[in-house]
Every structure is written in structure tokens, then in C-alpha cells.
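Section 3.1: Structural characterization of target chains.
Under the original work plan, the team committed to producing a structural model for every single-chain target entering the pipeline before any wet-lab resources were allocated. The record below documents one such target. The sequence was received from the expression subgroup and is listed exactly as submitted; it comprises 174 residues.
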Amino acid sequence: MRDSRPQSLESFFDCASQSGIDPLRDIQKRATALLKLTQTVRALLPSTLQPWCRVANYRQGLLILETANANWLMRLRYEQPALLSALREQILPSLVTIDIRINPALAANIHESEVRQSSQELSATSRQPPRILSPQSAEILKGLATQSPERLQKILERLASLAGESTSENQSSE
């Protein structure tokens, strides 16, 4: 029976260094291979599916793909036969089947990147200089307010007065 008690990492690396095997190098090679395989799979998928799919593992002719939710799972299943034949032709002739699994963390990662991107866009737009309403435009708004209903008149007058304040602030700061 196999001894499955926890072992320290030091003993693991000591045994590996004595035998001449570098486990970190093997892990790095495996991770790099999976990343390249993910890029190839995404290139073969329609653009709508690409961000929602990644390669989780490949072993013994079985390719395991992860997707965010059941909606994308069904779309991937629709693409599965074409993907299987394309991967066999291009890089994995030993590929037997593709297993697709749902990983909600993938959706969370995509959501985080979208939030990060939208916040960057928002900060870029917030750096634009404030719009300045000229005194002539403020006078036009006041003239329009005199001919407008009472509720709209108050709004237009308030807008015209703010325009005067913003121009005076900008002139004093220059």
C-alpha cells in the first residue's frame, strides 16, 4: 500500500536533487505545453467562445476543457466534433476524446478582467479636461428659459448659472 502521509517540500526537493530530476522544470514544461495547447484551441474556436474556454489538462488521449457555465458548455459541445478533428490533424494525433467541464472560477476571472478594463477606461475618460460652457451659451440658455415652462425654466437658469461659475473658476485658475 502506498504511503500517502504529508511530506515536507524540502524532503521532496532533496530526493529529486539526489536523483538528478528537477521537478520544478517538469512542472514548468507541463504548464508551458498546456498554455500553448490553450492558445491553439482558442484559435480553432469561434471568437465568441475564445475567452470562455481554456485547457485544464491533457492526459492519455483525453483533452479536458473548462468553461464558465452551462451556456458556454452547450456551445462548446456544438463545436466539439470540428475541434476534435482539427486538433487531431494539427497537433494531437493521439487525441481520443474531449471532456468539457464547468469551472465557475473562469467566469469570475473574466468578470474581474472586464471590471479592471472598464475602470481603466473610466479613469482615462476622467482625465479629460472639463467641458466649459461659454458666456454666450449661458446667455442663450437664459433667453430660452424665459420662453419655457416654469419647471424647465428653473433647470435652464440653474445650468446657465453653473456655466458662469465654471468659466469664472477656469479664468481665475489660468
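Strands lie at 53-59, 62-67, 97-102.
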